[in-house]
Amino acid sequence: MSSLEARDLRVGYGGPDVVAGLDLVIRPEQITAIVGANGCGKSTLLRALARLITPTGGSVLLDGQEIRTLSSKAVAKRLGLLPQSPTAPENLTVEDLVARGRYPHQGLFRQWSPTDEQAVEEALAATATTDLRARPLDELSGGQRQRAWIAMALAQQTELLLLDEPTTYLDLAHQIDVLDLLDGLVAERGRTVVMVLHDINQACRYADQLVAVRDGRVHAAGAPGEIVDDRFIGDVFGLEARVVEDPVTGTPLCLPIAQRRSTRCAS
């Protein structure tokens, strides 16, 4: 089982570090949700874990090895990534996109195989994109495109899967479909999932480990039921809220307290 860890990680873009001396161990065969206010460094952290950004200090270890010393193909065989705003060549079809998830498994003497075909078919079926396979990405709705990109990441069949806001552009029903799918990958196939989420209630419902980032550091980490309370919401999001027990799952449920309430005058 692949392991992923950050040690004293520092990442910047030429100015002050966005991620500042952060330590994090990703637990295998679990869902880790990274949460925090806008600009806190959570997406930068995910990009650094995926080797898309070179740290200014510290290290990221994949299976105990410094990730920046590994080849791109070696990383891609163990770690799949869905970035926040992926792009694809014009007129690329859904099936062609998903097939690109098999690239790490190709080689000079290892070309397209029935195993690759099966991986693509399973990824299309899992994301309900089979009927879209022949359509160009640029003709799809935002939600359809997002599901196609998730299918590509699934076709890669890595033990580690990193996703930056995977429910972006999806309506509520498809958000739950995607999160249920990821939950099933962990429960049934032993995958390890790390995802950035904006919805704290969805993060609490689906995550085994919640990592709250504040000012580029881990403010709190642990099981949602152990760390999420009224004070946590105030510290991490700057929001007054009441945290109660979700009547469906028993996980923490955040109820924001409106700072201002509009009034309407009867005519």
From TrEMBL:
Its main location: membrane. Keywords: ATP-binding, Cell membrane, Ion transport, Iron, Iron transport, Membrane, Nucleotide-binding, Transport. Residues 4-240 form the ABC transporter domain. Pfam families: ABC_tran. One of its GO terms (cellular component) is plasma membrane. SUPFAM superfamilies: P-loop containing nucleoside triphosphate hydrolases. It is a peripheral membrane protein. It is found in: Cell membrane. CDD domains: ABC_Iron-Siderophores_B12_Hemin (cd03214). One of its GO terms (biological process) is iron ion transport. One of its GO terms (molecular function) is ATP hydrolysis activity. This is ABC transporter ATP-binding protein. It comes from Solirubrobacter phytolaccae. The lineage of its organism: Bacteria, Bacillati, Actinomycetota, Thermoleophilia, Solirubrobacterales.
